[in-house]
UniProtKB/TrEMBL annotation:
The gene is Nkain4. It comes from Illadopsis cleaveri. GO terms for biological process: regulation of sodium ion transport. It is found in: Cell membrane. InterPro entries: Na/K-Atpase_Interacting (IPR008516). The lineage of its organism: Eukaryota, Metazoa, Chordata, Craniata, Vertebrata. One of its GO terms (cellular component) is plasma membrane. It is a multi-pass membrane protein. Keywords: Cell membrane, Membrane, Transmembrane, Transmembrane helix. The keyword Membrane applies. This is Sodium/potassium-transporting ATPase subunit beta-1-interacting protein.
Length: 203
């Protein structure tokens, strides 16, 4: 649900890189839930590996909005340089008032408007940082849970194999009769009189 909520606001802000990352995250989460329900440990392992990637991505988002390491929140990195859109929260955050001023008096900027946002109770970059931090927390909990589920499934498989999975003589094994006994029964069917009958024929 948290990923879906974030996806909606990233769509509203045309943040294409986060949109793609959120989409992959939702798919992997569904895969992990399917693996848990259907007892597929491999799917859960894929989810556990993805959580590490997801944590790394959200750390990058935090560094991006806090402008750590030369990153700039005003760059077009998250939109793949397709547009100059910013986070939806930059104009629609709590307490924000959006104002448009005409630019008709400036040459080359006729029919354009300057948008200013004032009165925001919380700057939009901190909202994005809180979103990413919450995603990291959920991912860490999911990673621990995935490891626990995989360990439980593995223990169940090992206990099953110990009881009878690797037993060369399982419980449903039918003891076959020895070959010499089968040969003897076949001989008696073909020659019911036995050796005495054959001796009488020779006489």
């Amino acid at each position: 649900l948290a990923a879906l909520e974030r996806q909606v606001f990233d769509f509203l802000g045309y943040q294409w890189a986060p949109i793609l990352a959120n989409f992959l995250h939702i798919i992997i989460v569904i895969l992990g839930l399917f693996g848990t329900i259907q007892y597929r440990p491999r799917y859960i392992v894929v989810y556990a590996i993805w959580t590490a990637v997801w944590v790394t991505w959200n750390i990058f988002i935090i560094c991006f909005y806090l402008e750590v390491g030369g990153l700039s929140k005003d760059s077009e990195l998250l939109t793949f340089n397709i547009s100059r859109h910013q986070s939806w929260w930059s104009e629609n955050g709590p307490g924000c008032v959006r104002k448009e001023a005409s630019m008709s008096g400036i040459k080359g900027l006729d029919n354009h408007s300057y948008i200013s946002v004032i009165g925001c109770a919380l700057e939009y970059r901190y909202i994005e940082v809180m979103h990413s931090s919450f995603q990291i927390l959920i991912a860490l909990v999911g990673f621990v849970y995935a490891c626990y589920v995989v360990s439980v499934f593995t223990e169940e498989e090992d206990s099953f194999d110990f009881i009878g999975g690797f037993d060369p003589f399982p419980l449903y094994h039918v003891n076959e009769k020895p070959t010499n006994l089968l040969f003897k029964q076949t001989y008696l069917l073909l020659f019911p009189t036995g050796f005495s009958g054959m001796e009488g024929m020779n006489k």
